[in-house]
Amino acid sequence: AQKVTQAQTEISVVEKEDVTLDCVYETRDTTYYLFWYKQPPSGELVFLIRRNSFDEQNEISGRYSWNFQKSTSSFNFTITASQVVDSAVYFCALSEARESGGYQKVTFGTGTKLQVIP
Amino acid sequence: NAGVTQTPKFRILKIGQSMTLQCAQDMNHNYMYWYRQDPGMGLKLIYYSVGAGITDKGEVPNGYNVSRSTTEDFPLRLELAAPSQTSVYFCASRWDRGNTIYFGEGSWLTVV
Fold first, then answer.
1. Are B105 and A95 an interchain contact pair (Cβ–Cβ within 8 Å)?
2. Which residues lie below 8 Å from residue B66, measured CB to CB, with a gap of 6+?
3. How many other CB atoms are found less than 10 A from the CB of residue B30?
4. Which residue, A69, A58, A112, is CA-closest to A87?
5. DSSP B32-86
6. Which of A45, A61, A67, B17 is the most buried (most CB within 10 A)?
């Protein structure tokens, strides 16, 4: 069974602090894709990153960085020097790469609500 | 830069009414999805389509129907609206398996 766990329901940090959002996944597939999405208070879902299971290199994009570790089935997201505009709900998602009855199952975590306090 | 377009953005329905949420994408994506997001929760898949003329049920299909007559459009039909269908609905699409999923801006539906 495929599962994504975001154990942190809500996190509050003071502006300029670093914060890490955890994502732990379960899958029996050897090929899969992981995603992070941001949902700001306005409600839309904004794509942040996509990573395939064969690429364990960490990635940095400005203040955002992602740590993918297959050994622990984790794909954690760190925001450095957080800003008020980072306040949002962040979702981690896992997508199978193989066909399964014509549908590639995509499983979303329940999200972590991040509040950055000025 | 249209991407995935959903209409309407907000709607209030009375119990028992029906309506259609429209979704269109201009990226020539094969895969399209409808999700619902209940308050404080993650996304649950309602229906999906892997191409024009092909649709199938997701996790929570009861009370909904879809059609996919063209690659671009994937409307979601709510029949006999119930309060349990009060939610935010997201349409999404992607080119192929493993590719990035792009979401519409969401449709806020309240059934009273």
1. no
2. B34, B46, B47, B49, B55, B74, B75, B76, B77
3. 17
4. A112
5. EEEEEE-TT--EEEEEEEEETTEEEE-S--TTEEE--SSSSB--EEE-S--GGG-
6. A45
Whole-number Cα distances in Å, B66 to A37, B52, B61:
25, 12, 10
Confirm or reject contact between A34 and chain B (CB < 8 A): no
Nearest beta carbon to residue A44 from set B99, B101, B103: B103
Rounded alpha-carbon distances, angstroms, from residue B12 to A83, B60, B95:
35, 21, 32
Given an 8 Å threshold on Cβ–Cβ distance, is B31 in contact with A106?
no
Q: Which of A1-10, A28-37, A43-52, B15-24 has the highest mean pLDDT?
A: B15-24
According to the model, what pLDDT value does residue A103 have? 59
Give phi and psi for B37, each to the nearest 5.
-130, 110
From the list A37, A93, A110, the residue facing B41 with the nearest CB is A110
- Write the residue in B48, B100, B106 that is nearest to A103 by C-beta: B48
* Dist CA A48 CA A35 (whole Å): 7
> Diameter of chain B by CA atoms?
39
The verdict on A108 touching B (C-beta cutoff 8 Å) is: yes
Interface test with chain A among B32, B46, B59, B101, by most A beta carbons within 10 Å: B101
Q: How many residues does chain B have?
A: 112
What span, in angstroms and rounded, lies between the C-alpha atoms of A97 and B85? 31
Whether A102 shows a pLDDT value over 90: the answer reads no
